[in-house]
Design brief:
single chain; about 290 residues; alpha/beta; Rossmann fold; eight-stranded mixed β-sheet; two-stranded antiparallel sheet; globular
Length: about 290
């Protein structure tokens, strides 16, 4: 499988600058659609943080979505804070709710990321207080938007912080499916068990060495992941059968050595593979290839 890989700092820190969203048209799989929708959520009006609504509307119209609703923190200076959009295809009766992940230039996102204490959550266990706070900023808006697509098949998605927010949101309103990319751990075992009892259709993608998927540490405050991983290996193939921990460890060790040899020394590249693997484009390419999109 010849799947591209990017070590570029720009793809990690400014995921939407590359553009070329849905370059081969609308994907045939929900996974590939959500991977690119998660990257599209980073499109913003630089140097401010508000959504670049014109760009997003143009992109989703190009793949057959007729409408888009935007949800942004109403009190954040220069558009700082939480962001999500709801892309709606009335013809296919499909709606995709995509949350923006951590913006490297937005201090409020970074503050949300480091608030690692667990807080009680709607009577179903405990969740990361920073992720809960980030979702709460915009949840009232999101709920109103979701009420307009009650008859649609509903997908939740996001990358990084956006993946965490999408997971917490799934505990408040069950989507048809949840697709997350580069998600940190979100809550404790009681929270995870509650989602499993609700039979959440969950697809959690982990790109090889991606360090964000391993925080907060599993032993810290009883954090645990929601569902098994869809692991993207060194060969850029998606392993969908819950690979063994030993396999993933060996694969990651080999990947880090290969990265030092091929990428780490080049100007403009990320120094470490555990960071480079977190770039949204490094999820889009293998997930699209695996689905034939």
């Amino acid at each position: 499988m010849n799947v591209p890989y990017s070590a570029a700092k720009e793809d990690l820190f400014y995921p939407a600058r590359r553009g070329a969203f849905f370059s081969t048209g609308r994907p045939t799989s929900d996974a590939a659609l959500c991977a690119e929708m998660a990257r599209l959520a980073y499109a913003r009006q630089e140097p401010d943080f508000a959504f670049d609504r014109d760009q997003i509307l143009k992109v989703i119209a190009g793949i057959g979505f007729q409408e888009c609703k935007f949800f942004e923190n109403p009190t954040g200076p220069q558009g700082q804070g939480s962001h999500a959009f709801l892309a709606i295809d009335d013809t296919a009766k499909l709606a995709v709710l995509s949350f923006r992940g951590t913006d490297a230039d937005d201090p409020t996102d970074l503050i949300d990321d480091i608030k690692t204490s667990l807080q009680p959550w709607t009577g179903i266990g405990k969740v990361h207080s920073g992720f809960a706070g980030a979702l709460t900023q915009i949840w009232d808006q999101v709920q109103k938007g979701l009420s307009t697509v009650a008859e649609a098949r509903l997908l939740f998605t996001g990358h990084s912080l956006g993946a965490a927010m999408a997971t917490v949101a799934a505990s408040l309103q069950l989507p048809s499916s949840l697709y997350t990319f580069g998600s940190p751990r979100v809550g404790n075992s009681e929270f995870v068990a509650a989602l499993q009892r609700r039979q959440l259709d969950n697809h959690r993608y982990v790109d090889c060495c991606d360090v964000v998927t391993r925080v907060p540490p599993e032993g810290l405050l009883e954090y645990t992941h929601v569902g098994r991983p869809f692991y993207i290996d060194l060969a850029r193939a998606v392993q969908e059968r819950d690979p063994a921990d030993e396999y993933m460890k060996e694969d990651r060790d080999a990947a880090e050595v290969r990265y030092i040899e091929d990428y780490a020394w080049r100007i403009g590249n990320v120094a470490l593979r555990p960071l480079a693997d977190h770039a949204p484009i490094n999820y889009v390419w293998p997930v699209s290839a695996a689905s034939g999109a």
